[in-house]
Write a structure and sequence with these properties.
By secondary structure, this protein is α/β, with parallel strands linked by helices. 35% of the residues lie in helices and 25% in strands.
């Protein structure tokens, strides 16, 4: 009775659920006697469930009793990349709870013993074009930053840091590859005469906001379209490739990193400049989050390290110019959140100055402190001659000690 009641309260019809060895069912249930199940056994169950779970269905991992966040995070790490945990239901002290990335809410009373339920969907569905557009449209306004808020100066500084990593020359053409709200391309073009900026994003709402931001900042030559990185909408037809391509925070959203890199290549002229940045999967902070937090945005699981991306582009003939980290992994995120939610922004400017100073030191010294930053940015020059590219597959570094070796290879 406990499990059926919990399923109903978190929005899953019990009639749509079948056990792993039973026929039918859009959602597949695997009962775990303990959260300490061996990684090999769990990986085998996930592989079998992958054959059964319908496209939009879920793998339901029901754990007897209560389980710590660290134990649930270990389960999540093992079943990745086949499945990604999107919600947790639990019964404790006669009450049901539903937890998502937005927070936890209490549900109705439920009879029965304590139980924890991990709800995991196929990675292919979580990162599908349809799911991506829906998520980006829903979050577009908040991803644009909030002018006047205590953290807005820090928000803009991070975009400016990436945008100014390679200033375009007068008259050059710039592509913001996966533009979001458009700030990186806008910051790159600021104060440079005759620069044309093109931008694209999967989300129509993000494209609308980027166009609005470009107008409000007085950017005279700006054009935006919708599209994905594996098939970029620029350049098309007789349009020329770009002198400078900027891609910030995009590769971690890409379901196929190889296709993403090929898409970037297709937009850049021979000898052009590429500036690419993203979250740092190997930072001290993100390693800790993967060990201790059972619910994470899919991009944190999907992210690549700077070393992986550098190797991928260099194998294609790109010349690496520099790498540096920004956004300190500690104490910036925690202290900034505390400052904004409880201290009325008192610490926002001191934290911004600290972050700027240490990012500048890391850049000046050649990125010796990369693992201390949650984000990285790199600059490359594209090959000048055709036929110099010998792409190699992205390989996850063995140093990712917090993700189980029993899991299938990451696509």
């Amino acid at each position: 009775m406990t499990l059926a009641s919990l399923l109903v309260q978190i929005g899953i019809d019990p009639e749509s659920v079948a056990e792993l060895d039973a026929p039918g069912g859009e959602n597949i249930l695997v009962e775990l006697q303990s959260a300490e199940i061996s990684e090999q056994e769990l990986a085998r169950a996930a592989a079998r469930a992958e054959e059964r779970v319908a496209g939009t269905g879920a793998l339901l991992l029901a754990v007897e009793g209560s389980a710590s966040d660290a134990a649930l995070a270990r389960i999540r790490n093992v079943i990745w990349p086949a499945f990604h945990v999107t919600a947790i239901g639990r019964v404790e002290n006669g009450r049901a709870y539903h937890r998502t990335l937005s927070g936890e809410r209490a549900l109705e009373s439920v009879e029965g013993n304590p139980r924890t339920l991990l709800v995991a969907h196929r990675r292919q569905w979580v990162q599908s074009p349809e799911a991506t557009v829906e998520k980006f449209d829903k979050n577009a306004a908040s991803w644009n930053g909030m002018p006047g808020s205590p953290g807005y100066s820090h928000f803009r500084w991070m975009r400016r840091y990436v945008g100014c990593f390679a200033r375009p020359r007068t008259g050059e053409r710039v592509l913001d590859f996966g533009c979001g709200a458009g700030w990186c391309g806008i910051e790159a073009a600021r104060g440079v005469e005759g620069v044309h900026v093109s931008a694209f994003d999967p989300s129509p709402e993000m494209v609308r906001i980027a166009e609005e931001n470009a107008r409000s900042e007085g950017l005279g030559s700006f054009e935006a379209r919708t599209g994905f990185g594996n098939d970029p909408p620029f350049p098309r037809g007789d349009e020329e490739p770009y002198d400078l391509v900027i891609s910030s925070g995009v590769v971690s959203f890409a379901p196929d990193v190889e296709e993403f890199i090929e898409g970037v290549e297709s937009t850049l002229r021979p000898g052009g400049t590429l500036v690419i940045g993203d979250i740092n999967s190997d930072s001290r902070g993100f390693r800790s989050r993967r060990r201790t937090k059972p619910l994470l945005p899919v991009r944190e699981m999907n992210a690549c390290s700077a070393a992986e991306i550098r190797h991928a582009f260099e194998s294609r003939g790109f010349a690496h110019l520099e790498t540096c980290g920004y956004q300190l992994t500690w104490p910036i995120p925690e202290a900034m959140h505390l400052s904004e939610t409880r201290l009325f922004g008192t610490l926002s400017l001191p934290l911004l100055y600290l972050n700027r100073a240490l990012a500048g030191i890391d850049r000046a010294l050649g990125d010796p402190f990369g693992s201390q930053f949650d984000s990285w940015v790199m600059r490359f020059t594209a090959p000048r001659l055709p036929g110099t590219r010998t792409p190699v597959p992205i390989a996850v570094e063995e140093s990712r000690e917090d993700v189980s070796s029993a899991q299938p290879e990451r696509a």
